[in-house]
Amino acid sequence: MRFLSVNQLVPGTRLARPLYGAGGSILLRENFELTESIICRLKGLGYNGVYVNDEISEGIVIQDVVDEKLRIETANRLEDILKNNGNIEDMQPLVSEVVDSIIDNSDIIINMNRLSGHHKYTYLHSVNVGILSIGIGVKLEYNRDKLIELGMSGMLHDIGKKHVPIDILDKSGTLSKEEFQVIQTHPERGYKMLNNAYNLSSVTKVGVLQHHERFDGSGYPNGLKGHEISMFGRIIAVSDTYDAMTSDRAYHKASQPSEVIEYLFGNGNQRYDLRIVDYFSKCIAVYPIGSCVELSDGTQGIVLKNHMDSVLRPVIRNIQNKQIIDLKNDINYLGICITGLMQ
Ligand SMILES: [Fe+2]
Predict the structure, then answer these.
(1) Rounded to an integer, what is the distance from CA 32 to the centroid of its chain?
(2) From ligand 1's centre to the CA of 100, what distance in Å?
(3) Residues facing 317 on adjacent strands
(4) How close is the Cα of 284 to the center of ligand 1, in Å?
(5) How many angstroms separate the alpha carbon of residue 314 from the centre of ligand 1?
(6) What is the pLDDT of residues 222-281, one digit of tens each?
(7) 82 C-alpha to center of ligand 1: Å?
(8) 2-53, superfamily in CATH?
(9) Model-level pTM?
């Protein structure tokens, strides 16, 4: 099984997993054989890619830390609450389910393959930020209750954007000073929206308020520095940046996960807390299982396994001769690195 972008799909390819529609119901069954017109439709619906079974990926099984169905359900609940002025605390049962799933699968590295593209971006982004934040919390050995508080904070971090006009949020050009000032109000607006949620802890609310604060004091709304920023604020800053930079948005093309990890490390103890970046790099699959990569010696391989302590050097299988190469432990490959994902 592997994840293939819609642009690489050819008629006759079979789905390795069911494909869910926006409402969370099954759109296409597992093993469904794709046709030209279905591939076109998937592109039109905003799917980035799908999981397929083919010769290259034979024998590869991909396990998700949180399955797609739960991610979509959680995103839909968030959308429903925000659009209908529902009770924000109703997110809690689903966030608890997400936390349990992450705790149960804590030996698996988080795989952030993006099935859907522009479609419902805001809500899925929020859920992803929640998942990534919980992943960091697990590394920090937070207990279940604290992970739920952190997950709530991560998933609700951008709710204040409800009050920012959509044409400013989705603007593709440079923002004017006034427009940027409007965007910068969203952490405080979000914090105020949570004021009446009496069952939400103050650390959850403060995480929402502080997710754009930066370690060196360059963030907003209060220009807090270092340890003045709560742990939740520092954690969400890292997961939010990662998920936003690895997504296609109106104003930028998605960067590769390895580039974003490099960016985060490069800004460690400047914009971000280096310790958090370090924990984060240990829970995210920079090269997810089933992704095809190119090595600096020209070899093309498919990722079989990730090492938690060495995310940039997974075990791969050579696509041409099927040789297994452990980039972390194979001494013949110590001088060779992955140059990028094959698109
Ligand atoms: Fe934000």
Answers:
(1) 27
(2) 26
(3) 302, 324
(4) 21
(5) 32
(6) 999 999 999 999 999 999 999 999 887 766 778 888 899 999 999 999 999 999 999 999
(7) 16
(8) Molybdopterin biosynthesis moea protein, domain 2 (3.90.105.10)
(9) 0.91
